[in-house]
Design brief:
There is one protein chain. The chain has 275 residues and is of the alpha/beta class. The chain is built from ten helices and nine strands. The strands form two sheets. Strands 1-2-3-4-6-9 form a six-stranded mixed sheet, sandwiched between helices. It has a three-stranded mixed sheet with strand order 5-7-8. Helix 2 (81-100) links the parallel strand 3 (58-63) and strand 4. Helix 1 (37-52) runs parallel beside helix 2 (81-100) and helix 2 runs antiparallel to helix 9 (227-240).
Length: 275
């Protein structure tokens, strides 16, 4: 693409479709579209470009291959403290920009969506998931606070009881179950995910742009009012990156075994009275 989206490395593809639809594809299929540290910044630049892009009316985001996005690539080296702080700022900017963009965003969840990937999927205005897609919040499973979207969006979508269950346990959902509880907008057979998303995008692109954008702005007030909760959870997540539990989770991943979290190995049962 020869316009403002030409600053990428190929890990994220941006394609203009007819009628003002922009298709963004996370493009590391061999790594289930997990993100490298540079990709976090690349996605921030893309969302900033979308906000000022006068040609685009609707955005569709999806993943290449069998996955949507499985979060940060845990095979890369551990982030330094400086990189962790940069990620915190990157996340703050990303969420703020996505909520501010008045153009509708549609996520086409063609496969597994975990962590950052699930955040990207659920912060979209309309989410269309494959029936058999696996959705996992995932943060507590690797010893860190659910910091990039859960405190912000989950309670509004499914209520606090479901939020606490799925976010605290990191239990997986299928696309079908996610639609049933209201976590995603629609669940369709896998081969229909992107075509259905593009169909909805075309429909929105032909509609009253002022009415659609003003309606999105009004609805997103529910989310922007909760931004301080997101920033708190994101800050707590960054603190966890320096913790022993996160280090153990990464080591367990490398050794292909279950994590044995140090914080779970206590001299007495948590909550029991001390002698």
């Amino acid at each position: 693409m020869s316009d403002l989206y030409n600053h990428g490395t190929g890990d994220v593809l941006v394609e203009r479709r007819d009628g003002g639809v922009l298709l963004i594809t996370l493009n590391r299929p061999d790594r289930y579209n997990s993100l490298t540290l540079p990709m976090f910044e690349e996605m921030n630049r893309i969302w900033a470009d979308v906000e000022r892009d006068e040609q685009t009316k609707v955005v569709v985001i999806t993943g290449a291959g069998k996955a949507f996005c499985t979060g940060m690539d845990v095979a890369q080296p551990d982030p330094t403290p400086e990189q962790a702080l940069a990620m915190l700022e990157s996340e703050r900017q990303r969420v703020s920009t996505v909520l501010r963009i008045e153009k509708p965003i549609i996520s086409a969840i063609n496969g597994p969506a975990v962590g950052y990937g699930l955040s990207t999927a659920l912060l979209a205005d309309i989410s269309i998931a494959a029936d058999d897609a696996v959705l996992i919040e995932g943060h507590t499973r690797v010893g860190v606070t659910a910091g990039d979207h859960a405190a912000l969006i989950w309670p509004l979508l499914v209520g606090m009881a479901k939020t606490k269950y799925y976010v605290l346990t990191s239990e997986k959902l299928t696309g079908t179950e996610a639609e049933r509880i209201g976590l995603v907008s629609l669940s369709v057979p896998r081969e229909q995910v992107l075509p259905r998303a593009l169909e909805v995008a075309s429909q929105l692109a032909r509609g009253s742009q002022q009415a659609i954008r003003f309606t999105k702005r009004a609805l997103n007030a529910w989310l922007t009012n909760a931004v301080p909760q997101h920033e708190l959870s994101a800050a707590l997540e960054i603190l966890d990156f320096a913790g022993a539990d996160y280090a153990e989770a990464r080591q367990a991943f490398r050794e292909k075994r279950a994590a044995d979290f140090p914080s779970a190995r206590t001299a007495r049962t948590a909550g029991a009275p001390a002698n």
